[in-house]
Design a protein that fits this description.
Oligomer: single chain
Shape: globular
Number of strands: 12
Structural class: alpha+beta
Helix content: 40-55%
Distance between the termini: 38 Å
Length: 302
Amino acid sequence: MDMQTSFLDRLFESGLLIDTGVDGLYGRSGQFEDVIAAFERLIDMFGGADGAEAIRFPPGMNRAFFETSGYMKSFPQLAGTVHSFCGSELDHMSLLKCMEVGDDWTKDQQATDIVLTPAACYPLYPTVAKRGALPDTGALFDLQSYCFRHEPSKDPARQQLFRMREYVCMGSEKHVTDFRQSWMDRGIGMMKAVGLDVTIDVANDPFFGRAGKMLANNQRDQNLKFELLIPITSAAKPTACMSFNYHQDAFGTKWGLNFANGSVVHTACVGFGLERIALALFHTHGLDAMEWPESVRKALWG
């Protein structure tokens, strides 16, 4: 039995995660949720004074916005769409017959106007663009959302539906790269406070296909993405629990995010994988949060 399965099994046995029969789709116990709530309060302590505007989007987003985002060009393998039955009574009869005999009843389901949100910040850009020109001082947003990525896995740190907390900064190149740097420093401080060993490394997204390899190399070469890594299921391959992304003017250009003088806004974001951070804490300090070191409990629960 490999290390990964055994950690997942221990999480199931302790009741922290609840098996649904689908890899990467889990229920969570009250204790698991309590750790996430405590960590979010810690995020607020580090970032609260920055004056970010809080917005909460649902885990589904407008399909037209999703199409404009270009996500399918880069990550078709991760996307999830919402399909529904749109047929007549007759179609319903044949659907039920299919189900009865074990045939594929989903083949006549049709795509709706909703896709599952792939990253917490995706619905933000068209929302802000609708408001008009950004102030010269830029803008800062605080987001939290369930996100979906289709990558079934026995690794509990790779879930298909998970929560992402994000701060998104919009402004000049210097403004947003300074923001990113300050959060890289804060990230190390936060993890130290909760007793987690971390490294920060340059990274790339899982771009799809041959063209994707070029995008990934480009992203790495320009240091556009850094990840804060913590061992969860493997010490050799630690898991990314925070990411620090500089998008240059890519989203600004795509969504028409401009300053009053017409110049394009740059954007950067910092993302916290909330389930992953909770898993890192349980993996490092043990499966009973009541038994965690006093300093860690103090940092989380005061």
